[in-house]
Amino acid sequence: MALPEKRKHPPSFQHLPINRAKKLKQTWVQNQKIKTKWKLEKRKEAARATKQAEDAAVDESDTEGDDQAPSISAPIPSQPSPPTRKKRAPGRSHPPESESAQAPSLRDRAREAYSPATLHTYRSNSSGKPRGGKPGARGRGQPNMKLRMGVLLETIKRDFT
User: Fold this and answer.
1) Cβ(76)–Cβ(57) under 8 Å?
2) Residues 15 and 62 in one domain
3) Pick from 124, 161, 127: which is nearest to 146 by CA?
4) Is residue 112 a contact partner of residue 118, using CB atoms and an 8 Å limit?
5) Distances from the Cα of 11 to the Cα of 89, 115, 126, angstroms
6) Which domain covers residue 109, as residue numbers?
7) Which of 22, 84, 110, 121 has the most neighbouring CB atoms within 10 Å?
8) Can you give the pTM of this predicted structure?
């Protein structure tokens, strides 16, 4: 049993001036309306396409049925078959050496991601409030989580493939 989706409410944009927040909220609502109309249209097109395919299949079976004894034709399932995955060639599990030589190795990427040189000084919190430490003291910077997460993702991919 599928859980009903929660209806998404428009963002409030409380951190912006009132006039700007109202405009952004209106544009967000308009975008959502356009998206829902587009999704509905796509669903209708898909339903029409499957119905036409069923009608064509029924017409073909009717012409064949005139020559033979009349029989009850089974309805064609309306659900399309699940998508098939493309399998890789068995010898191509890893990229060729020329491609991997250009990209830095996982060890080099990890060394770079965790080095003090990649600490960045721009704020990662959007509220702008200090989170701790001594007030007025400048920190050494935040770790660049994009680099670290990239390394983590690569190790996971390597371990599970």
Assistant:
1) yes
2) yes
3) 124
4) yes
5) 47, 38, 15
6) 101-122+141-161
7) 110
8) 0.32
